[in-house]
Amino acid sequence: MSLDAELLAAHAAGDVEALITLYTRASEEAVQDAARGFYLTHAYVFALEAGDQRAKRLAERLRTQGRL
Amino acid sequence: MSTDLTAVIAPIEQARGLPNAHYIDEATFDEESKAVLHASWAGLAVAADVPENGDAKPLEFLGLPLLLIRDKDGGVRVFQNTCRHRGMILVSEPRKIEGAIRCPYHSWCYSTKGKLVTTPHVGGPGMNTHEAIDKDTLGLIEIPSHIWRDVVFVNISGDAAPFEEIHADLIARWAEFDQPMYHGGDDSKFELGVNTNYKLAVENYCESYHLPWVHPGLNSYSRLEDHYNINEPGKYSGQGTLVYRQFEGAGGKRFPDFTGLSDKWDDGAEYITVYPNVLLGAQRDHAFAIVLEPQSVDRTVEHIHLYYAVPNVDDAMRLKNTAQWKEVFEEDIFVVEGMQRGRYGPGFDGGRFSPAMDGPTHCFHAWVAQRILDYRQSHSVAAQ
Protein backbone atom coordinates (compact mmCIF):
# COMPACT_ATOMS: atom_id res chain seq x y z
CA MET A 1 0.00 0.00 0.00
CA SER A 2 1.38 3.43 -0.91
CA LEU A 3 1.94 6.07 1.74
CA ASP A 4 -0.91 8.10 0.29
CA ALA A 5 -3.24 5.13 0.53
CA GLU A 6 -2.13 4.44 4.09
CA LEU A 7 -2.81 8.05 5.01
CA LEU A 8 -6.27 7.96 3.48
CA ALA A 9 -7.02 4.72 5.30
CA ALA A 10 -5.82 6.19 8.62
CA HIS A 11 -8.02 9.25 8.07
CA ALA A 12 -11.00 7.05 7.22
CA ALA A 13 -10.45 4.98 10.35
CA GLY A 14 -9.78 7.99 12.56
CA ASP A 15 -6.55 6.30 13.59
CA VAL A 16 -4.68 9.23 15.11
CA GLU A 17 -1.73 7.14 16.20
CA ALA A 18 -1.21 6.06 12.59
CA LEU A 19 -1.74 9.59 11.29
CA ILE A 20 1.07 10.90 13.47
CA THR A 21 3.38 8.12 12.32
CA LEU A 22 2.46 8.38 8.65
CA TYR A 23 2.62 12.17 8.43
CA THR A 24 6.01 12.09 10.13
CA ARG A 25 7.17 9.54 7.57
CA ALA A 26 5.71 11.59 4.73
CA SER A 27 7.67 14.58 5.98
CA GLU A 28 10.88 12.63 6.08
CA GLU A 29 10.33 11.20 2.60
CA ALA A 30 9.27 14.46 0.98
CA VAL A 31 11.61 15.90 -1.61
CA GLN A 32 10.43 19.48 -1.57
CA ASP A 33 10.97 21.70 1.46
CA ALA A 34 7.40 22.99 1.46
CA ALA A 35 6.03 19.47 1.44
CA ARG A 36 8.31 18.53 4.34
CA GLY A 37 6.89 21.39 6.35
CA PHE A 38 3.34 20.60 5.34
CA TYR A 39 3.48 16.98 6.45
CA LEU A 40 5.46 17.74 9.59
CA THR A 41 2.80 20.28 10.55
CA HIS A 42 0.07 17.67 10.21
CA ALA A 43 2.01 15.17 12.29
CA TYR A 44 2.47 17.81 14.98
CA VAL A 45 -1.17 18.91 15.02
CA PHE A 46 -2.50 15.37 15.38
CA ALA A 47 0.05 14.62 18.10
CA LEU A 48 -0.86 17.84 19.92
CA GLU A 49 -4.57 17.04 19.78
CA ALA A 50 -4.04 13.51 21.03
CA GLY A 51 -1.69 14.51 23.82
CA ASP A 52 0.86 12.21 22.21
CA GLN A 53 4.34 12.50 23.64
CA ARG A 54 5.76 12.94 20.13
CA ALA A 55 4.23 16.41 19.93
CA LYS A 56 7.12 18.01 21.80
CA ARG A 57 9.76 16.57 19.48
CA LEU A 58 7.75 17.46 16.38
CA ALA A 59 7.34 21.01 17.64
CA GLU A 60 11.10 21.27 18.10
CA ARG A 61 11.66 20.17 14.53
CA LEU A 62 9.19 22.71 13.22
CA ARG A 63 10.79 25.40 15.34
CA THR A 64 14.24 24.50 14.07
CA GLN A 65 12.96 24.88 10.54
CA GLY A 66 11.46 28.27 11.36
CA ARG A 67 7.93 26.94 10.93
CA LEU A 68 6.59 27.40 14.44
CA MET B 1 -42.74 48.32 23.66
CA SER B 2 -41.50 48.26 27.25
CA THR B 3 -43.67 46.59 29.84
CA ASP B 4 -44.88 48.57 32.84
CA LEU B 5 -43.20 47.10 35.92
CA THR B 6 -44.31 49.65 38.47
CA ALA B 7 -46.83 47.32 40.06
CA VAL B 8 -44.34 44.46 40.25
CA ILE B 9 -41.98 46.27 42.59
CA ALA B 10 -44.80 47.66 44.74
CA PRO B 11 -45.27 46.30 48.30
CA ILE B 12 -46.75 42.83 48.23
CA GLU B 13 -50.16 44.02 49.42
CA GLN B 14 -50.56 46.08 46.26
CA ALA B 15 -48.22 44.28 43.90
CA ARG B 16 -49.02 42.35 40.77
CA GLY B 17 -46.81 39.79 39.11
CA LEU B 18 -44.79 40.31 35.96
CA PRO B 19 -46.96 41.08 32.93
CA ASN B 20 -47.86 38.28 30.51
CA ALA B 21 -45.39 39.53 27.91
CA HIS B 22 -42.52 38.31 30.09
CA TYR B 23 -43.78 34.77 29.58
CA ILE B 24 -45.10 34.74 26.04
CA ASP B 25 -43.53 37.54 24.01
CA GLU B 26 -40.19 36.91 22.29
CA ALA B 27 -39.05 40.53 22.22
CA THR B 28 -39.87 41.11 25.86
CA PHE B 29 -38.13 37.89 26.85
CA ASP B 30 -35.10 38.88 24.80
CA GLU B 31 -34.77 42.15 26.70
CA GLU B 32 -35.39 40.39 29.99
CA SER B 33 -32.79 37.74 29.20
CA LYS B 34 -30.11 40.37 28.65
CA ALA B 35 -31.10 42.17 31.84
CA VAL B 36 -31.49 39.09 34.01
CA LEU B 37 -29.93 35.91 32.65
CA HIS B 38 -26.92 37.52 30.97
CA ALA B 39 -26.21 40.25 33.50
CA SER B 40 -26.40 38.16 36.68
CA TRP B 41 -24.76 34.87 37.72
CA ALA B 42 -26.92 32.27 36.01
CA GLY B 43 -26.67 28.54 36.52
CA LEU B 44 -25.30 26.72 33.49
CA ALA B 45 -24.44 23.19 34.58
CA VAL B 46 -22.80 21.30 37.42
CA ALA B 47 -19.11 20.57 37.79
CA ALA B 48 -20.00 16.87 38.00
CA ASP B 49 -20.86 17.10 34.30
CA VAL B 50 -17.09 17.16 33.64
CA PRO B 51 -15.70 14.87 36.36
CA GLU B 52 -12.23 14.21 34.95
CA ASN B 53 -9.48 16.44 33.67
CA GLY B 54 -9.94 17.06 29.96
CA ASP B 55 -13.68 16.32 29.99
CA ALA B 56 -15.47 18.75 27.70
CA LYS B 57 -19.19 19.26 27.25
CA PRO B 58 -20.73 21.61 24.69
CA LEU B 59 -23.76 23.49 25.97
CA GLU B 60 -26.12 26.16 24.73
CA PHE B 61 -27.41 28.93 26.90
CA LEU B 62 -30.20 30.83 25.16
CA GLY B 63 -28.56 30.05 21.83
CA LEU B 64 -25.09 31.03 23.00
CA PRO B 65 -22.67 28.18 22.21
CA LEU B 66 -20.58 27.39 25.28
CA LEU B 67 -18.01 24.79 26.20
CA LEU B 68 -17.78 23.49 29.75
CA ILE B 69 -14.38 21.94 30.35
CA ARG B 70 -12.23 20.68 33.17
CA ASP B 71 -8.73 21.79 32.29
CA LYS B 72 -5.62 19.67 32.62
CA ASP B 73 -5.06 20.92 36.18
CA GLY B 74 -8.62 20.22 37.31
CA GLY B 75 -10.08 23.73 37.07
CA VAL B 76 -13.57 24.01 35.62
CA ARG B 77 -13.89 26.69 32.95
CA VAL B 78 -16.48 27.94 30.50
CA PHE B 79 -15.53 29.20 27.05
CA GLN B 80 -17.43 30.32 24.03
CA ASN B 81 -17.40 27.17 21.91
CA THR B 82 -16.24 29.16 18.92
CA CYS B 83 -12.91 29.14 17.09
CA ARG B 84 -11.26 32.56 16.92
CA HIS B 85 -10.37 31.93 13.27
CA ARG B 86 -13.58 31.53 11.27
CA GLY B 87 -16.10 31.08 14.06
CA MET B 88 -16.49 27.33 13.73
CA ILE B 89 -18.03 25.36 16.59
CA LEU B 90 -15.10 23.62 18.26
CA VAL B 91 -16.64 20.71 20.15
CA SER B 92 -19.94 19.18 19.03
CA GLU B 93 -20.31 16.23 21.40
CA PRO B 94 -19.22 15.60 24.99
CA ARG B 95 -15.74 14.04 24.93
CA LYS B 96 -12.39 13.99 26.60
CA ILE B 97 -9.71 16.36 25.34
CA GLU B 98 -6.52 14.32 25.52
CA GLY B 99 -4.15 17.06 24.44
CA ALA B 100 -5.58 20.07 22.66
CA ILE B 101 -8.93 21.28 21.35
CA ARG B 102 -8.52 21.11 17.57
CA CYS B 103 -10.93 23.07 15.45
CA PRO B 104 -12.37 20.62 12.91
CA TYR B 105 -12.24 23.27 10.17
CA HIS B 106 -8.62 24.50 9.78
CA SER B 107 -7.16 22.78 12.86
CA TRP B 108 -6.29 25.79 14.96
CA CYS B 109 -5.54 24.21 18.34
CA TYR B 110 -6.29 25.46 21.85
CA SER B 111 -5.16 24.21 25.24
CA THR B 112 -7.76 23.17 27.81
CA LYS B 113 -7.10 26.55 29.44
CA GLY B 114 -8.09 28.33 26.26
CA LYS B 115 -4.67 29.38 25.01
CA LEU B 116 -4.24 29.33 21.24
CA VAL B 117 -1.39 26.87 20.82
CA THR B 118 -0.90 26.51 17.10
CA THR B 119 -2.24 27.84 13.82
CA PRO B 120 -1.28 25.32 11.14
CA HIS B 121 -0.37 26.71 7.72
CA VAL B 122 -1.41 30.20 8.78
CA GLY B 123 1.64 31.62 7.02
CA GLY B 124 1.22 29.35 3.99
CA PRO B 125 1.73 25.60 3.57
CA GLY B 126 3.98 24.32 6.33
CA MET B 127 4.42 27.79 7.85
CA ASN B 128 2.59 27.89 11.15
CA THR B 129 3.09 31.48 12.17
CA HIS B 130 2.34 34.84 10.61
CA GLU B 131 3.26 38.23 11.97
CA ALA B 132 -0.36 39.37 11.71
CA ILE B 133 -1.63 36.53 13.88
CA ASP B 134 -0.75 37.14 17.52
CA LYS B 135 -1.63 33.92 19.32
CA ASP B 136 -1.49 35.61 22.70
CA THR B 137 -4.51 37.72 21.81
CA LEU B 138 -6.52 34.97 20.17
CA GLY B 139 -7.25 32.53 22.97
CA LEU B 140 -10.74 31.22 23.48
CA ILE B 141 -13.18 33.74 24.90
CA GLU B 142 -13.67 32.74 28.51
CA ILE B 143 -16.97 33.37 30.26
CA PRO B 144 -16.58 34.37 33.92
CA SER B 145 -17.66 31.40 35.99
CA HIS B 146 -17.96 30.46 39.64
CA ILE B 147 -18.76 27.15 41.31
CA TRP B 148 -20.88 26.97 44.43
CA ARG B 149 -22.45 23.79 45.74
CA ASP B 150 -21.18 22.17 42.53
CA VAL B 151 -23.29 24.45 40.33
CA VAL B 152 -21.38 26.25 37.60
CA PHE B 153 -22.65 29.81 37.50
CA VAL B 154 -21.76 32.09 34.58
CA ASN B 155 -21.93 35.81 34.07
CA ILE B 156 -22.41 36.18 30.33
CA SER B 157 -22.20 39.97 30.28
CA GLY B 158 -18.96 39.82 32.24
CA ASP B 159 -19.72 42.87 34.35
CA ALA B 160 -21.48 41.50 37.42
CA ALA B 161 -19.93 41.92 40.85
CA PRO B 162 -18.16 38.78 42.13
CA PHE B 163 -20.47 35.86 42.96
CA GLU B 164 -19.22 35.68 46.56
CA GLU B 165 -20.09 39.35 47.01
CA ILE B 166 -23.58 39.18 45.52
CA HIS B 167 -24.46 36.00 47.36
CA ALA B 168 -22.52 36.64 50.57
CA ASP B 169 -25.64 36.39 52.77
CA LEU B 170 -26.79 33.13 51.27
CA ILE B 171 -23.30 31.63 51.44
CA ALA B 172 -23.16 32.62 55.11
CA ARG B 173 -26.65 31.22 55.75
CA TRP B 174 -25.57 27.80 54.56
CA ALA B 175 -21.97 27.98 55.77
CA GLU B 176 -22.47 24.78 57.76
CA PHE B 177 -22.85 22.94 54.47
CA ASP B 178 -19.59 24.29 53.13
CA GLN B 179 -18.05 20.83 53.06
CA PRO B 180 -17.51 18.15 50.44
CA MET B 181 -20.61 16.74 48.83
CA TYR B 182 -20.68 13.94 46.32
CA HIS B 183 -22.81 13.64 43.22
CA GLY B 184 -24.65 10.33 43.30
CA GLY B 185 -23.64 9.57 39.69
CA ASP B 186 -25.66 8.73 36.62
CA ASP B 187 -28.63 7.39 38.57
CA SER B 188 -28.78 10.57 40.65
CA LYS B 189 -29.53 12.98 37.84
CA PHE B 190 -32.46 13.41 35.51
CA GLU B 191 -33.98 15.99 33.22
CA LEU B 192 -37.53 17.20 32.91
CA GLY B 193 -38.52 19.12 29.80
CA VAL B 194 -41.43 21.44 30.49
CA ASN B 195 -43.45 23.74 28.29
CA THR B 196 -43.11 26.77 30.49
CA ASN B 197 -41.09 29.90 31.02
CA TYR B 198 -38.31 29.21 33.51
CA LYS B 199 -39.61 31.87 35.90
CA LEU B 200 -42.71 29.83 36.59
CA ALA B 201 -40.56 26.91 37.72
CA VAL B 202 -38.77 29.31 40.05
CA GLU B 203 -41.89 30.73 41.58
CA ASN B 204 -43.45 27.31 42.08
CA TYR B 205 -40.28 26.20 43.88
CA CYS B 206 -40.14 29.26 46.10
CA GLU B 207 -43.38 28.76 47.95
CA SER B 208 -44.96 26.14 50.14
CA TYR B 209 -48.52 27.40 49.62
CA HIS B 210 -49.15 24.76 46.95
CA LEU B 211 -47.77 21.79 48.87
CA PRO B 212 -50.96 20.36 50.37
CA TRP B 213 -52.75 20.65 47.02
CA VAL B 214 -50.10 19.49 44.60
CA HIS B 215 -47.98 17.19 46.76
CA PRO B 216 -50.44 15.61 49.19
CA GLY B 217 -48.05 12.73 49.81
CA LEU B 218 -45.19 15.04 50.62
CA ASN B 219 -47.39 17.19 52.79
CA SER B 220 -48.70 14.28 54.82
CA TYR B 221 -45.45 14.36 56.70
CA SER B 222 -44.53 17.96 55.99
CA ARG B 223 -47.51 20.05 56.94
CA LEU B 224 -48.09 23.53 55.60
CA GLU B 225 -47.86 25.10 59.03
CA ASP B 226 -44.46 23.53 59.54
CA HIS B 227 -43.01 25.56 56.68
CA TYR B 228 -41.69 29.09 56.75
CA ASN B 229 -41.06 31.66 54.06
CA ILE B 230 -37.55 32.82 53.24
CA ASN B 231 -37.66 36.37 51.92
CA GLU B 232 -34.49 38.33 51.35
CA PRO B 233 -35.54 41.19 49.06
CA GLY B 234 -33.04 41.88 46.32
CA LYS B 235 -31.13 38.70 47.17
CA TYR B 236 -32.89 35.35 47.30
CA SER B 237 -36.02 33.60 48.47
CA GLY B 238 -37.44 30.20 49.16
CA GLN B 239 -38.98 28.11 51.87
CA GLY B 240 -37.91 26.13 54.87
CA THR B 241 -39.39 23.27 56.85
CA LEU B 242 -39.24 22.55 60.55
CA VAL B 243 -40.12 18.88 60.20
CA TYR B 244 -37.71 17.46 57.68
CA ARG B 245 -37.99 13.70 57.74
CA GLN B 246 -34.90 11.88 56.61
CA PHE B 247 -35.08 9.48 53.74
CA GLU B 248 -35.26 5.89 54.95
CA GLY B 249 -34.30 2.76 53.08
CA ALA B 250 -35.06 -0.84 53.94
CA GLY B 251 -35.04 -1.48 57.67
CA GLY B 252 -35.02 2.23 58.45
CA LYS B 253 -31.50 2.68 57.13
CA ARG B 254 -30.54 6.31 56.55
CA PHE B 255 -27.96 8.17 54.50
CA PRO B 256 -24.96 9.50 56.45
CA ASP B 257 -25.36 13.10 57.57
CA PHE B 258 -23.17 16.00 56.57
CA THR B 259 -20.74 16.54 59.39
CA GLY B 260 -20.86 19.07 62.20
CA LEU B 261 -24.34 20.47 61.51
CA SER B 262 -26.08 22.45 64.25
CA ASP B 263 -29.34 21.33 65.88
CA LYS B 264 -31.33 23.48 63.47
CA TRP B 265 -30.79 20.90 60.77
CA ASP B 266 -31.88 17.90 62.84
CA ASP B 267 -35.45 18.52 61.76
CA GLY B 268 -34.97 21.48 59.44
CA ALA B 269 -34.32 21.80 55.73
CA GLU B 270 -34.29 24.73 53.33
CA TYR B 271 -35.13 25.15 49.68
CA ILE B 272 -33.85 28.33 48.13
CA THR B 273 -33.64 29.84 44.67
CA VAL B 274 -30.33 31.37 43.74
CA TYR B 275 -31.69 33.98 41.36
CA PRO B 276 -32.27 33.77 38.52
CA ASN B 277 -32.44 30.07 37.69
CA VAL B 278 -30.92 27.69 40.24
CA LEU B 279 -33.04 25.84 42.79
CA LEU B 280 -31.14 24.36 45.73
CA GLY B 281 -32.11 22.07 48.56
CA ALA B 282 -30.09 21.74 51.78
CA GLN B 283 -30.88 18.86 54.10
CA ARG B 284 -28.93 17.00 56.77
CA ASP B 285 -28.46 13.81 54.72
CA HIS B 286 -28.51 14.87 51.08
CA ALA B 287 -28.76 17.88 48.86
CA PHE B 288 -29.95 18.69 45.41
CA ALA B 289 -29.45 21.27 42.72
CA ILE B 290 -31.83 22.04 39.90
CA VAL B 291 -30.42 24.09 37.05
CA LEU B 292 -33.20 25.55 34.95
CA GLU B 293 -32.16 25.78 31.33
CA PRO B 294 -34.30 28.46 29.66
CA GLN B 295 -34.46 27.21 26.07
CA SER B 296 -36.98 29.78 24.89
CA VAL B 297 -39.72 32.03 26.19
CA ASP B 298 -41.99 29.02 26.74
CA ARG B 299 -39.66 26.04 27.07
CA THR B 300 -37.45 25.03 29.97
CA VAL B 301 -35.39 21.96 30.77
CA GLU B 302 -34.90 21.19 34.45
CA HIS B 303 -31.58 19.47 35.18
CA ILE B 304 -31.82 17.78 38.56
CA HIS B 305 -28.77 16.50 40.48
CA LEU B 306 -28.65 14.74 43.86
CA TYR B 307 -25.68 14.89 46.24
CA TYR B 308 -24.65 13.01 49.36
CA ALA B 309 -22.33 13.56 52.30
CA VAL B 310 -20.17 10.60 51.39
CA PRO B 311 -19.23 8.93 48.12
CA ASN B 312 -20.80 5.60 47.19
CA VAL B 313 -23.94 5.60 49.30
CA ASP B 314 -26.12 2.49 49.24
CA ASP B 315 -27.21 1.75 45.66
CA ALA B 316 -30.80 0.76 46.39
CA MET B 317 -31.37 3.71 48.68
CA ARG B 318 -29.88 6.11 46.18
CA LEU B 319 -32.09 4.81 43.38
CA LYS B 320 -35.18 4.99 45.54
CA ASN B 321 -34.35 8.53 46.60
CA THR B 322 -33.94 9.60 42.97
CA ALA B 323 -37.30 8.03 42.10
CA GLN B 324 -38.97 9.74 45.04
CA TRP B 325 -37.70 13.19 44.07
CA LYS B 326 -38.57 12.61 40.44
CA GLU B 327 -42.15 11.87 41.44
CA VAL B 328 -42.31 15.09 43.46
CA PHE B 329 -40.88 17.24 40.68
CA GLU B 330 -43.10 15.61 38.07
CA GLU B 331 -46.12 16.51 40.18
CA ASP B 332 -45.23 20.14 39.56
CA ILE B 333 -45.22 19.89 35.77
CA PHE B 334 -48.95 20.40 35.26
CA VAL B 335 -48.73 23.50 37.45
CA VAL B 336 -45.89 25.24 35.68
CA GLU B 337 -47.29 24.32 32.28
CA GLY B 338 -50.76 25.39 33.34
CA MET B 339 -49.53 28.78 34.57
CA GLN B 340 -47.75 29.20 31.22
CA ARG B 341 -50.93 28.50 29.27
CA GLY B 342 -52.87 30.79 31.57
CA ARG B 343 -50.67 33.70 30.58
CA TYR B 344 -52.01 33.69 27.04
CA GLY B 345 -55.23 35.08 28.50
CA PRO B 346 -54.89 38.82 27.84
CA GLY B 347 -57.04 39.73 30.82
CA PHE B 348 -54.55 38.29 33.26
CA ASP B 349 -52.74 41.22 34.84
CA GLY B 350 -49.82 39.43 36.46
CA GLY B 351 -51.96 38.23 39.32
CA ARG B 352 -52.12 39.12 42.99
CA PHE B 353 -50.01 37.73 45.80
CA SER B 354 -51.09 36.45 49.17
CA PRO B 355 -49.21 38.73 51.58
CA ALA B 356 -49.06 35.82 54.02
CA MET B 357 -48.07 33.02 51.69
CA ASP B 358 -46.52 34.44 48.50
CA GLY B 359 -43.71 36.54 49.88
CA PRO B 360 -40.95 34.45 48.28
CA THR B 361 -42.66 34.61 44.90
CA HIS B 362 -43.15 38.35 45.09
CA CYS B 363 -39.53 38.67 46.17
CA PHE B 364 -38.46 36.92 42.96
CA HIS B 365 -40.77 38.94 40.71
CA ALA B 366 -39.58 42.19 42.25
CA TRP B 367 -35.95 41.15 41.81
CA VAL B 368 -36.50 40.37 38.12
CA ALA B 369 -38.39 43.61 37.60
CA GLN B 370 -35.68 45.67 39.27
CA ARG B 371 -32.99 44.05 37.12
CA ILE B 372 -34.99 44.98 34.01
CA LEU B 373 -35.57 48.54 35.21
CA ASP B 374 -31.86 48.93 35.95
CA TYR B 375 -31.02 47.57 32.50
CA ARG B 376 -33.43 49.96 30.81
CA GLN B 377 -32.01 52.88 32.73
CA SER B 378 -28.39 52.04 31.94
CA HIS B 379 -29.20 51.63 28.26
CA SER B 380 -31.20 54.81 28.23
CA VAL B 381 -28.23 56.67 29.73
CA ALA B 382 -25.88 55.01 27.26
CA ALA B 383 -28.10 56.03 24.36
CA GLN B 384 -28.08 59.63 25.52
Largest interface: A-B, 21 and 16 residues
Low-confidence stretches of chain A: none
Through-space gap between termini of chain A: 32 Å
CATH architecture of the largest domain in chain B: Alpha-Beta Complex
| Secondary-structure-derived class of chain A | mainly alpha
CATH superfamily of the largest domain in chain B, please?
Answer: Naphthalene 1,2-dioxygenase Alpha Subunit, Chain A, domain 1
Distance from N terminus to C terminus of chain B (CA atoms, Å) equals 19 Å
The number of domains of chain A: 1
Record field, number of beta strands of chain B: 18
Counting H and I runs of at least 4 residues, what is the number of helices of chain B? 10
Summarize the structure.
Chain A has 68 residues and is mainly alpha-helical. Helices cover 79% and strands 0% of the residues of chain A. Chain A is built from 4 helices and no strands.
Task: Describe the structure in your own words.
The complex is a heterodimer of chains A (68) and B (384). Chain A is an all-alpha fold. Chain A has one domain (3-64). In chain A, 79% of the residues lie in helices and 0% in strands. Chain A is flat and about 30 Å long. Chain B contains ten helices and 18 strands. In chain B, the strands form four sheets. In chain B, strands 11, 12, 13, 14, 15, 16, 17 and 18 form an eight-stranded antiparallel sheet that branches. In chain B, strands 4-3-2-5 form a four-stranded antiparallel sheet, with no helix packed on it. Chain B has a three-stranded antiparallel sheet with strand order 1-10-9. In chain B, helix 2 packs across helix 10 (359-383) and helix 5 runs antiparallel to helix 10. Chain A binds chain B through residues 33-38, 40-42, 44-45, 47-52, 55, 62, 67-68, and chain B through 98-102, 107, 109, 117-118, 120-121, 125-129.
